[in-house]
Amino acid sequence: MNVQHLLPRLTLHRQFAEDLWAAKAPCFALGMVEERQEPMGLLALRPPKAMPKEAMALGFNFGHTLVGNADFEVVQLFFEFYGFATYSVLLNPNNPLVKQVLSHMLASKQYFFLALAPDATVTAFRAEFEADRLAGLREHWPRLQNSRTNDLQYQKAVKAIQKQTQDPDALLTWVCRYQVDCLDPRKDPLELTPRVTLILHQKDTLIDGERIAISPGMTSPRISRPGSAGLLSIY
Q: pTM for this structure?
């Protein structure tokens, strides 16, 4: 049967949203978003090209690992869109913004993911963790909290991963990395107003409160449970 859902508004910091849209794709930004006045971690991705509706409908797999050696560490996040592409981004855990957002995600066990299409439409996924799906990051959190990774070490990790990446567009540029003042959307709110979305209930499709789409004309996509890596790669 078809069911109509009125989706909640999402609130971003206006400057964060404008800077993300002005950045050159493909890129990624870490931030915060509010839903019903509840703050949540935000993973925002601008892929190099539009993702087909079929790929978006399948949802995505979220994974993570650590890259580095005994002296420094970098967080690598992965976004696998089934049958289409896998993107990743490298984050410096010594960055104050990264520490605040990841700390909030670990505490709340939920986050929002935004995919910004070239035509300016936005698709939002909300994920909540039934189990501790961020166990890998949680295990390494004491090290990440005390990270002293500097910019030179971060760039070293980026260059190393670039050499291992066959598709140059698969490694996203990390943008908006110093906008700690933009972590509170209430300071300069920008609301994303959702459209009414039709959801088709099927036996093989998960339909619950974790699914949301605010892209015009797109049905609500499937959320896959996030994966967890948490391995330290030495090089």
A: 0.79
